[in-house]
Amino acid sequence: MTLALHGGTPVRTAPWPSWPPPIDEAQWELVTAVLESGRWGATQGGSVCAELAEAFARRSGVPYGVAVGNATLGLFAALRGLGVGPGDEVIVPAYTFVASATAVLLAGAVPVIADVDPADLHLSARTTEAAVTGRTAAIMPVHLAGSPADMDPLNAFAARHGLAVIEDAAQAHGATYRNRPIGGLGDAGVYSFQASKAMTAGEGGLIVCRDEIVYEAVWSACNVGRLRGGTWYGHPGVGWNLRLTEIQAALLLPWLDHRLDAEIDRRNAFATALERELGHLGDAVTVVPRPPGTTRDSRHLLMLRLRTPVGRSFLLRAMAAEGVPLDAGYPPLGTLPALTEAGARAEPCPAADAAAGDVVWVRQPMLMDDPANAAGVAEALAKVLTEGRQA
Ligand SMILES: *Cc1c(COP(=O)(O)O)cnc(C)c1O
């Protein structure tokens, strides 16, 4: 079996599902209704952003939600709403998207980059403990890849130290932890609707929270410092226009009603099938385990750990040639010079460093394929590992 990289026949030639999937009837209807109404922004009296915020709050098990332009701004607004700012430190995991840290910089606080658990790659109470100082004001667990961080010990740790907890739920719409929805487990939770996420309007974000005072502060931060119910040109707080458009909300609201759960089930079916197939490869490729307490994984990504003499960059090139493109994943945040130059502090992060070398991702569009095609992914991996060892 010659590798496709060396002129052989690729294992897979059919295209993978594209993302996002085609929009459905309910989305067309609501988007059209909003367009025809002329109320494209929430300040014109439209109600779809508010409905979306309410629906997300309900699904997160909390009373309040605020729709925003994207999750980076959502994390920023959540930090503002919780009173985190200059002089404060916020602990973020080393293995996450860069926005978890840059949102902290936007709030004028110091991102402290903590290591992740070596097995499940999430922030844990243990790795958080190593990074805490007298200036720590908040922690930001990330529900990485759609599996929730182990929130009970993190919340207990935060309570002991008097820290706010902001869940970065950008990758985990619909996930549950010990049968409780994520997003509402900390003081605030933030979802993303950017193009690669499980629900998308191209861009977008949403903040949920439990406490009314936090809600008022977050809302004000997103609405030019206005007071809810106050006068238009009264700005008792400092705030910005961070709002989502009604048109975006109209794409998202029906998705939440009709599609999200079915799509999560579909991705999980593919991931389960792939994990079974990978069993034939022994230790060489294994699924990165979830943190304790995951009761529903929204499967934004499937992370795989390689234990093989075949180099990862060769493997990624060879897999792409076989028609099965995988992803190298994140560099540890502490290795990004721009972050440390901007004031971030990085703890030693051996587990994130290791993950940056031997973890690869199966991305969401591939997980949306027919689970029967998981066998082809395993077959391509087996081929590349066997032939690559001889190459
Ligand atoms: C996508 C993502 C963000 C940022 O979301 P945007 O909506 O693009 O600003 C933040 N954190 C994580 C973990 C993400 O995956």
Automatic annotation (TrEMBL):
Q: Which species expresses this protein natively?
A: Nonomuraea solani
Active-site residues are 197
What cofactor does this chain's UniProt record say it requires? Answer: pyridoxal 5'-phosphate
Q: Which GO terms describe its biological process?
A: polysaccharide biosynthetic process
Positions where N6-(pyridoxal phosphate)lysine occurs in the chain? 197
**A molecular function (GO) term:** transaminase activity
Please identify the protein, giving its name as recorded: dTDP-4-amino-4,6-dideoxygalactose transaminase
Task: Please provide an example of a Pfam family that matches this protein in its UniProt record.
Answer: DegT_DnrJ_EryC1
Keyword match Nucleotide-binding: no
Its organism's taxonomic lineage begins at: Bacteria, Bacillati, Actinomycetota, Actinomycetes, Streptosporangiales
CDD domains cross-referenced by the UniProt entry: AHBA_syn
Matching InterPro entries, A to Z?
A: DegT/StrS_aminotransferase, PyrdxlP-dep_Trfase, PyrdxlP-dep_Trfase_major, PyrdxlP-dep_Trfase_small
Q: Which UniProt keywords apply?
A: Pyridoxal phosphate
